[in-house]
Amino acid sequence: MTLNLLLLIYWSIRRKYWALLPLGVILFNFSYIGGVVQLRFSKPDLLPGHKSFKIATYNVKEFGREDQAAASWQIAEFMNREQVDVICFQEYQDYEHFNMDSMKMSFRNWPYNAILADTLDLLRLAVFSKFPVEKGELIKYKDSGNCMMWCDVVVNNTRLRVFNVHLQTTGLSWKRREIEQEFQSELSTMEKKKKVFKETFDLLVDGIHKRIVQADNLHRLVEESPYPVLVCGDLNSPPSVYTYFKINEGLKDGFRTAGYGYAYTFRFYKHMLRLDYIFHSESLQGIDYYSPELDVCSDHNPVIMQLGVPQQ
Known about the structure:
Elements: H1 2-13, H2 20-28, H3 30-36, E1 37-38, E2 50-59, H4 68-81, E3 86-90, H5 100-106, E4 112-114, E5 125-129, E6 133-140, E7 147-155, E8 158-166, H6 172-182, H7 189-224, E9 229-234, H8 242-248, E10 252-253, H9 254-258, E11 261-262, E12 276-280, E13 285-290, E14 303-310
Transmembrane segments: 20-41
Protein name: Endonuclease/exonuclease/phosphatase domain-containing protein
Domain Endonuclease/exonuclease/phosphatase: 56-300
């Protein structure tokens, strides 16, 4: 995109019709650009009759597994400094050496919680809150270790339905290692490359199909909600595909309403991927939205949003 912008400037200065080509590319991708770049120079004032609070979403990648205690305490301290009121975790996992009670102790400043996945076959989800958490539900995906959940959080007398979402994981890195190990001695280098390409392609297509079904299901549940909605989580999708647009339908992308600068949430691949999001109902006011670099245990960064909630 930067290259197209430079080409547009160059050919425009030279008054060449070639400028139409990069201009067309930029216009075609304008929606994507708005999903990763926002220009905003000040935060809006809280609307009269509204109360503000902060919510965060964070794929913690099982708190790094090896040193869960240290990672969970560091994250809790970070969320305290940022004055976050509600935290949505994906890939929240406990093990024998650091169980669920230990995790809850780390996040004791958030006394209310909803942790609904009760099996290691699923990549667990958890919501920790300083506000009361009412009923919730776990939604499992077909043929997947991913899942989503919702719970109702009462923020200053206003009930919000919070969806904590982890859409289908690509699994590219582990699949590539699995194939290479399996056929290391049996196939030639060219045959192995062809096998890796085919298996990778099939995995990508399967993941896309699953995310489409999962996004459709989430959209239906959002439409059925009797309360204002927040959708938080790891979509494993950039802001340019069906999954993003379907979930954004009827909701606001928090980055578009309150973010600024360049947005990415995946810490690798040259900071090119925005995969984690917070969407909100139109009745909620977006005040601030950011994704700080946090090198603790995960390949993702957290996303934090400040919102204004109308008081009842």
